[in-house]
Amino acid sequence: MRARCEALGVVLRPHLKTAKSIDVARIAADGGQGPVTVSTLAEAEYFAAAGWRDILYSTAIAPAKLARADRIQRDHGARLLFVVDDKEAAATIGKEAASLGARFGVLIEIDCGEHRSGVEPASAELVAIADAIGACAPHLDLMGVMAHAGHSYAFDDPAPIAALAEVERFAAVSSAELLRARGYPCPIVSVGSTPTALFAEHLSGVTEVRAGIYLFWDLSQLSRGICAEEDLAVSVLATVIGHQRRGPSLILDAGALALSKDIGANRFMPDAGYGLVCDAVTLKPLGSLAVSTVHQEHGNVPIPDESWFARLPIGSLVRILPNHACLTCAAYASYDVLRGGTVTEQWPRIGGW
Amino acid sequence: MRARCEALGVVLRPHLKTAKSIDVARIAADGGQGPVTVSTLAEAEYFAAAGWRDILYSTAIAPAKLARADRIQRDHGARLLFVVDDKEAAATIGKEAASLGARFGVLIEIDCGEHRSGVEPASAELVAIADAIGACAPHLDLMGVMAHAGHSYAFDDPAPIAALAEVERFAAVSSAELLRARGYPCPIVSVGSTPTALFAEHLSGVTEVRAGIYLFWDLSQLSRGICAEEDLAVSVLATVIGHQRRGPSLILDAGALALSKDIGANRFMPDAGYGLVCDAVTLKPLGSLAVSTVHQEHGNVPIPDESWFARLPIGSLVRILPNHACLTCAAYASYDVLRGGTVTEQWPRIGGW
Questions:
Q1: Is the Cβ pair A62, B239 closer than 8 Å?
Q2: Which burial class, exposed, middle or buried, applies to A159 when counting CB atoms under 10 A from its CB (0-12, 13-18, 19+)?
Q3: pTM, full prediction
Q4: Chain B residue closest to A58 (CA)?
Q5: Interface pTM (ipTM) of the complex?
Q6: Among B20, B136, B183, B197, which is least packed, fewest CB within 10 Å?
């Protein structure tokens, strides 16, 4: 992704919401501490304390969270960037920042079609928000715009993803142009999702790209043709704890809490279940075995015939490739790092909010 | 549930997999420390360290976990009970227990129709497992049988649930009778799920009931008519962070990680989404607002009209009644205890494995 962004002429601002790990963030920045994206103030605090300085908190900020955000800036000398998509929210945040004697950077979020959040590109509403932010100087600095083409996950074909990448790019760039015409310099034009970053034909006018899942990959990405199976970096180690003859199926000690109940891959890979079952050592898929049912701590893996009972006796280890790594990883306090089949390190991660 | 079990003439062995909290476990036992059920060794350790002595680990045990289980027994003077549903697994576990110089109680798991795990009631296979356990004396003590009618969640009507309670009861009792005829006393005949415990007509021959979700309730239970709305004990505090005019919808800072992606309630309550949106103070539902879409940290709540924007301005607090409390609570390290609208205590909980 670093090479890709370099080729596109944009800065990479990796989204750390999946990994939530200092060690992974260092790899993402080739050992450095460049700009990053986070999804919680807990992450912002964690990365700021570890030396990161340029942190985009990419969920719209609630006014009551500003005091903590201000402490993160003051305690660690970091600079937080917020996103705003409402002019009244901008005014409220500006007022709160003023009462704290704080100063924050702000991006205006542009809705490029997903309709999750954000304002219409290059709209009157956008200008009104910019003016509301401008009126809060010096406590808010309008730094630019951001767009996120989350609807790129509706496709498993590079052509429509490339088309959406252009929609995302144009939404952000045209919005920035409108704001510049009104006198706001907008040094940051931020776009991103892993698929659009990879399939965009060009990113002219964009200054930075946000992407996160590329750090790990998962079945959701694999199912959409965004990565290859051998790219998947995280797996869940599980033990066969039972042989169910009525089925027949293997029972694993990895259920809903260990894997999550996300089935985002299944739109394009209907048999992915809650994860694909792999050899614990080689990480090669075992036939097409998948965890098809989960209870809190049980995972059931249907098998074509009982010969699998001999192949995977009770007590055997397997590894599960997760359906959606962001949610699966959230169940764990750390990563066991495998090098050549051996756990050589444990990397902590930051959970909670 | 205590009163109900007393009326049924059985011991209550609360399942702590939902609450994972010492404070909640104390309430369940009316201040005491009776028998409990857990779903992870982390829970077993946690409750043993806090003084609980009779702990059923109700997921089939993997042989590699016995060393840790043995330490829990030795360090805290607790007695762990395992479940087994395979004769080879019984032999492997017995061998491992012998090599540790350990002694564990064992229940044989009976499949009363859910086909998740367990052996056929009163079957030759059951007897073979009992003999395999018996051959491991004194390292394994066959203490009896357990059955779990998890398929009771397929209904929202007391009549079929009562019928399944009888299936569950009969599966366990007939299996215990067969084992007694073979010379195994089987002092424990354990059944349970919250719905079957509540709707069983009688539990003749049963010695104990396992139930857990009754400690909190959730929309999955409410949707099946097992509890009333005012019974729900846990909620997720969230903030309105955006007003999406294309929709229209409210955007909350509670998404897939804060709520989980479980939609178990939706079979009988299709509009439950990922949780119902309530007033933050009164906990009364706000119209029929529900979180219909979740991203990692965003929850979208469709609204019938934009008048809701004035009613719930950005920065407003709401409370979400979770779809499935077991999964939602797993995202948090502690509970904030509300008394009269004020957080008076924080109760820790034990996550992980």
A1: yes
A2: exposed
A3: 0.96
A4: B297
A5: 0.96
A6: B183
